[in-house]
Task: inverse folding
Protein backbone atom coordinates (compact mmCIF):
# COMPACT_ATOMS: atom_id res chain seq x y z
CA UNK A 1 0.00 0.00 0.00
CA UNK A 2 1.16 3.50 -0.84
CA UNK A 3 -0.36 6.70 0.55
CA UNK A 4 0.77 10.24 -0.16
CA UNK A 5 -0.54 13.45 1.36
CA UNK A 6 0.43 17.08 1.49
CA UNK A 7 0.42 18.39 5.06
CA UNK A 8 0.30 22.13 5.58
CA UNK A 9 1.86 23.02 8.93
CA UNK A 10 0.88 26.21 10.75
CA UNK A 11 3.18 29.21 10.67
CA UNK A 12 5.85 29.02 13.35
CA UNK A 13 8.22 31.68 14.63
CA UNK A 14 11.92 31.20 14.06
CA UNK A 15 13.26 28.23 16.02
CA UNK A 16 12.89 24.47 16.34
CA UNK A 17 9.35 23.20 16.85
CA UNK A 18 8.07 19.73 17.73
CA UNK A 19 5.55 18.78 15.03
CA UNK A 20 5.22 15.01 15.50
CA UNK A 21 1.59 15.11 16.63
CA UNK A 22 0.59 17.60 13.92
CA UNK A 23 1.94 15.21 11.29
CA UNK A 24 0.54 12.02 12.83
CA UNK A 25 -2.90 13.69 13.18
CA UNK A 26 -2.97 14.15 9.38
CA UNK A 27 -2.13 10.47 8.75
CA UNK A 28 -5.02 8.36 10.14
CA UNK A 29 -4.02 5.54 7.76
CA UNK A 30 -0.85 5.08 9.83
CA UNK A 31 -2.75 2.90 12.31
CA UNK A 32 -3.50 0.36 9.53
CA UNK A 33 0.16 -0.23 8.59
CA UNK A 34 1.79 -3.18 10.36
CA UNK A 35 5.24 -2.67 8.85
CA UNK A 36 6.38 0.15 6.61
CA UNK A 37 8.08 3.49 6.20
CA UNK A 38 7.02 7.13 6.42
CA UNK A 39 9.02 9.53 4.30
CA UNK A 40 8.63 13.28 4.91
CA UNK A 41 9.80 15.90 2.43
CA UNK A 42 9.66 19.61 3.27
CA UNK A 43 8.95 21.69 0.14
CA UNK A 44 11.04 24.68 1.22
CA UNK A 45 14.67 25.83 1.15
CA UNK A 46 14.74 28.03 4.24
CA UNK A 47 13.47 25.56 6.85
CA UNK A 48 14.40 21.98 7.66
CA UNK A 49 13.27 18.75 9.29
CA UNK A 50 15.10 16.91 12.04
CA UNK A 51 14.58 14.14 14.57
CA UNK A 52 15.67 14.99 18.06
CA UNK A 53 14.67 15.19 21.73
CA UNK A 54 10.90 15.42 22.26
CA UNK A 55 10.76 15.85 26.05
CA UNK A 56 12.74 18.88 27.21
CA UNK A 57 11.88 22.09 25.31
CA UNK A 58 15.28 23.51 26.31
CA UNK A 59 16.82 21.25 23.66
CA UNK A 60 14.92 23.12 20.95
CA UNK A 61 16.14 26.46 22.31
CA UNK A 62 19.72 25.18 22.42
CA UNK A 63 19.44 23.82 18.87
CA UNK A 64 18.40 27.25 17.58
CA UNK A 65 21.22 28.91 19.54
CA UNK A 66 23.81 26.47 18.18
CA UNK A 67 22.57 26.85 14.59
CA UNK A 68 22.86 30.63 14.89
CA UNK A 69 26.46 30.26 16.06
CA UNK A 70 27.32 27.95 13.18
CA UNK A 71 25.64 30.20 10.58
CA UNK A 72 25.46 33.76 11.94
CA UNK A 73 23.43 36.40 10.13
CA UNK A 74 26.35 38.81 10.55
CA UNK A 75 28.38 36.68 8.14
CA UNK A 76 28.80 38.31 4.73
CA UNK A 77 26.65 36.72 2.03
CA UNK A 78 26.20 37.67 -1.62
CA UNK A 79 22.51 36.64 -1.75
CA UNK A 80 20.87 39.34 0.40
CA UNK A 81 17.88 40.46 -1.68
CA UNK A 82 15.37 38.61 0.54
CA UNK A 83 16.70 39.97 3.83
CA UNK A 84 19.49 39.20 6.29
CA UNK A 85 17.85 35.98 7.59
CA UNK A 86 17.36 34.40 4.14
CA UNK A 87 20.80 33.14 3.12
CA UNK A 88 21.63 31.86 6.62
CA UNK A 89 18.29 30.01 6.45
CA UNK A 90 19.32 28.34 3.18
CA UNK A 91 22.63 27.22 4.68
CA UNK A 92 20.93 25.82 7.81
CA UNK A 93 18.41 24.01 5.64
CA UNK A 94 21.21 22.44 3.59
CA UNK A 95 23.03 21.37 6.77
CA UNK A 96 20.02 19.74 8.45
CA UNK A 97 18.13 18.61 5.37
CA UNK A 98 14.55 18.68 4.20
CA UNK A 99 13.63 15.00 4.37
CA UNK A 100 13.28 12.26 6.95
CA UNK A 101 12.38 8.59 6.93
CA UNK A 102 10.80 6.95 9.96
CA UNK A 103 9.96 3.24 10.23
CA UNK A 104 6.38 2.24 10.95
CA UNK A 105 5.74 -0.70 13.30
CA UNK A 106 2.27 -1.91 14.27
CA UNK A 107 0.52 1.32 13.34
CA UNK A 108 2.95 3.67 15.04
CA UNK A 109 6.10 5.58 14.18
CA UNK A 110 8.98 3.49 15.53
CA UNK A 111 10.85 6.24 17.33
CA UNK A 112 13.43 5.61 20.00
CA UNK A 113 12.86 6.94 23.49
CA UNK A 114 12.59 10.73 23.52
CA UNK A 115 12.56 11.16 19.73
CA UNK A 116 10.24 13.46 17.80
CA UNK A 117 10.02 15.36 14.53
CA UNK A 118 11.17 18.97 14.46
CA UNK A 119 10.31 21.64 11.96
CA UNK A 120 13.28 23.98 12.15
CA UNK A 121 12.10 27.38 10.98
CA UNK A 122 15.15 29.40 9.96
CA UNK A 123 13.36 32.58 8.82
CA UNK A 124 11.93 35.29 11.04
CA UNK A 125 8.66 35.10 9.08
CA UNK A 126 8.73 31.90 7.04
CA UNK A 127 5.00 31.38 6.71
CA UNK A 128 3.17 28.07 6.57
CA UNK A 129 5.31 25.12 5.51
CA UNK A 130 4.21 22.20 3.30
CA UNK A 131 5.38 18.64 3.90
CA UNK A 132 4.79 15.78 1.50
CA UNK A 133 4.19 12.62 3.54
CA UNK A 134 4.57 9.30 1.72
CA UNK A 135 3.72 6.08 3.54
CA UNK A 136 4.53 2.67 2.19
CA UNK A 137 3.71 -0.52 4.01
CA UNK A 138 1.83 -3.72 4.56
CA UNK A 139 -1.28 -4.23 6.64
Result:
Amino acid sequence: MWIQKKILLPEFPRGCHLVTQAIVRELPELKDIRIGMLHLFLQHTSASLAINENADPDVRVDMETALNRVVPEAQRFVHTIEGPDDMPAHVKSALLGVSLSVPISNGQLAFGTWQGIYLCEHRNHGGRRAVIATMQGAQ
User: Anything to note?
Assistant: The chain has three helices and eight strands. Residues 2-138 form a domain with the Jelly Rolls fold (CATH 2.60.120.460). Residues 57-70 form the longest helix (14 residues).
